[in-house]
């Protein structure tokens, strides 16, 4: 039987891409309870139907949640229905890049959206869920989705790279803080993955978004989802602390 059997797993950014694919991989693996959160509620409602009809015993709670609105996070967690209230695993996946820009021409509103989503939202989600972990005797997993952009910057990506570096430092400090517990803090850094990520970055311009992948063979969301499922289904004392997953052309 999978070690994930019966676990309650909260995924942010579950309406598309890596988050959606992770929900499906988890449902394939065990009879889990999934809290699927995103701003686009109809998409996570649709995903609930898809998962519950295909995977017997898996239960899904769709949630409308904008992680950048941090004042809504604790009330959302506090009002989870009893069946989903004891979160065992948090997957902090919600994130985005907006624009490619020099610093002098930066759209500060977009910069703030990236910082508030990728960093502040991830911190606030971690804080809220850690309170559940400690209430339950100090156990649980947090998986933070970083990026190779947090390891090495690129021209035009100053703010996005900065947010993903922040994810790495926050994750590392949190891992130190939870050393004497059974809380595992995991970071997965994807390289290039073909999702709606580029479409969002280029404000819906499909030809620009597609050009990012031309001449390359990017990963697909499922490649990252499989790694996340592997990390959270290890034996309790095994921590895949920080891992990078790249398409071969990027390795
Ligand atoms: P997608 O654009 O396909 O998915 C992004 C998800 O994040 C969507 O479900 C979106 O849902 C959600 N989201 C965005 N903003 C918010 C918010 N404020 N509150 C809640 N949910 C939000 O991109 P990916 O799946 O590729 O991205 C997932 C993660 O992977 C991100 O953290 C990204 O930085 C990271 N990553 C991606 C890489 C890539 O090449 N694709 C490479 C490295 C890292 P909704 O719009 O419904 O809210």
TrEMBL record:
Asked if NADP is a keyword of the record, the answer is yes
Which Pfam family, just one, is annotated for this protein?
adh_short
User: A GO molecular function for this record?
Assistant: oxidoreductase activity, acting on the CH-OH group of donors, NAD or NADP as acceptor
Q: Which InterPro entries match?
A: NAD(P)-bd_dom_sf (IPR036291), Sc_DH/Rdtase_CS (IPR020904), SDR_fam (IPR002347)
For this UniProt record, give its keywords in alphabetical order, as a comma-separated list.
NADP, Oxidoreductase
Signal peptide residue numbers: none
Q: Which family does it belong to?
A: Belongs to the short-chain dehydrogenases/reductases (SDR) family.
Q: What is this protein called?
A: Short chain dehydrogenase
């Amino acid at each position: 039987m999978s070690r994930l059997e019966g676990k309650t797993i909260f995924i942010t950014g579950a309406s598309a891409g890596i988050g959606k694919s992770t929900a499906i991989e988890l449902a394939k693996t065990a009879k889990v309870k999934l809290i699927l959160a995103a701003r686009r509620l109809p998409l996570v409602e649709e995903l609930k139907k898809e998962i519950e009809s295909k995977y017997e015993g898996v239960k899904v709670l769709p949630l409308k949640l904008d992680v950048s609105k941090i004042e809504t996070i604790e009330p959302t967690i506090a009002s989870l229905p009893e069946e989903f209230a004891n979160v065992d695993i948090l997957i902090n996946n919600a994130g985005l890049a907006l624009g490619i820009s020099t610093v002098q021409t930066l759209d500060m509103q977009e910069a703030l959206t990236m910082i508030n989503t990728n960093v502040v939202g991830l911190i606030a989600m971690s804080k809220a869920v850690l309170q559940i972990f400690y209430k339950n005797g100090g156990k649980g997993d947090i998986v933070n989705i970083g990026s190779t952009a947090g390891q090495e910057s690129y021209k035009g990506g100053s703010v996005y790279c900065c947010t993903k570096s922040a994810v790495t430092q926050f994750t590392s400090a949190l891992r130190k803080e939870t050393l004497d517990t059974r809380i595992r803090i995991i970071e997965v850094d994807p390289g290039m993955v073909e999702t709606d990520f580029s479409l969002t970055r280029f404000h819906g311009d499909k030809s620009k978004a597609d050009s990012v992948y031309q001449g390359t063979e990017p990963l697909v969301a499922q490649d990252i989802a499989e790694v996340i499922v592997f990390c959270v289904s290890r034996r309790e004392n095994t921590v895949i602390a920080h891992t990078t997953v790249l398409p071969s052309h990027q390795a």
